[in-house]
Peptidoglycan-N-acetylmuramic acid deacetylase PdaA (Paenibacillus konkukensis), 262 residues
Amino acid sequence: MKRVAVLAVSLLLLALTIPFSVQAGEAATGNPYHFGFKKSKNQQLASINEEGFKDIIQKNEAIFLGDVSRKELYLTFDNGYENGYTPKILDVLKEHKVPAIFFVTGHFVKEQPELVKRMVAEGHLIGNHSWSHPDMSQISNARLQEELAKVQTAVSSLTSQKEMHYLRPPRGIFNDRILAASKELGYTSVFWSVAYRDWEPKAQKGWKYAYDNVMGQLHPGAVILLHSVSSDNAEALGRIITAAREQGYEFKSLDQMEKRTY
C-alpha cells in the first residue's frame, strides 16, 4: 500500500509540473541568434549569408533588405527611452519630408506620450519594440503576445494608429519560434542592413562619426537602424539625408516596401 501511495503522490506531482515544464521548454525551443551582418562597403550589398540564420529570416518573411535594384532607403529608430534627442530627430524629418518608423517600448510610451502622438501626427509609423524589452528567445508565446499587445493597446489609445504590423526584437535576439509566433500575431520582424555602435550615450564621438558610419554603408534597399538616444545621430541626420539624396537615394516608409531581399 505504501508503494501505491508513493506512486500516486509522484504522479500527482508530475501532473502539477507538466504545464510549467511545457512553458519553459517552449521558451527555450529554437537556437537563439543575435542578429549580425556583413557590412556594406562601396555600395555593395550588406550580407547575412554567413550568419547561420538566413533561412530562418527568409522563411518567416522578416525584413533585412528592400528592393536592391532601386536606390531606396528605410529609416528606422529604436526608442527604448528618451534621452532628449527625439524632438530634434522629428524636426529634421519634418524639415526634409522624410518618413520613418519608431520602434517603441512600454517605458517610452508611458513616459513620452506627447512624442508618440507627434510621431503619428507627422506621418511616421510606430513599431513594436515590446513592453519590457525582454530577450524574446527566452519567453513563452503567451508572454510574447502579452508584451506586444500592451504596446499596441497603449499606442492605439494615444494616436490614430490603431494597428501595428512591425516588430523589432529587443537587442536583435531571436529564434525561429519567436519569429513564427510574432508572424502569426500579424507582425513582420524588422532587422537592418546599416548600423553602427550608436546606443551608448556616454560614448558619443560627434556628428561626423555618425555621418561617416552611415554614409559608408549605404546601399540600395538599405534598412537603416539608428538609436534615438544618440546625440551624434540627431546632429548628423539632416546631413545624412541631404548627402544620400545627392547620391540619388529616396527615403521611403516600410509600408511602401514592395520587395524583400535576402
User: Anything to note?
Assistant: The chain has a mean pLDDT of 91. The two ends are 64 Å apart (CA to CA). The chain has one domain: 31-256. The longest helix spans residues 2-28.
